[in-house]
Amino acid sequence: MEKMANKKNLFEDLKKQTSRDLLALGSWVFYLLVIIRALIKPYRPFADQLIISALVLLMLSIFIKNSEFYVSRALLLAIFTSLFYQDILFAILAVITFLLLITGSYYLENRTIKTVRGLILGAISFIVGYYLPNLYL
I want to staple 118 with a disulfide (CB 3.0 to 4.6 A). Which of 26, 33, 71, 124 is the partner? Predict the structure, then answer.
């Protein structure tokens, strides 16, 4: 009986750790790394989209609290990097990773409304970040 309890605890620990690792893909640090990488080459339109989207998300986060901003940033990165690479295999990987990130967010938080708000804010930021740079290019 004790062995089964240990296995269950090990499995729960693994789920928590994996969920945290996936959520880290939506951190500001990772987001900044992607922006800096885009500026090095330079991939200016891609970098502009990421920067504008981040600024929009930052402004939205001032007014709208209690949202899962890791999900918002991960959504932005998944969409913009998929559009940038224009590779179906990468897009599939990005979608699967993002869906696992959402699952991990729910697993850690158990608050669907926070995740949904994060998705909505990410979608709004994406729309502005995608179309605004095209207005001045």
Answer: 71
Q: Give the dihedral of Cα atoms 121, 23, 105, 132; nearest 10 deg.
A: 10
The Cβ-side half-sphere exposure at 27, using a 13 Å CA radius, reads 9
Global pTM?
A: 0.88
* Chain segment 30-80, per-residue pLDDT in tens: 999 999 999 998 898 999 999 999 999 999 999 998 899 999 999 999 999
Residue 60's domain comprises 2-136
Nearest residue to 61 (alpha-carbon basis) of 37, 108, 28: 28
The number of folded domains in the chain is 1
Gyration radius (Cα) of the chain, Å: 17
> CB atoms < 10 A from the CB of 130, how many?
16
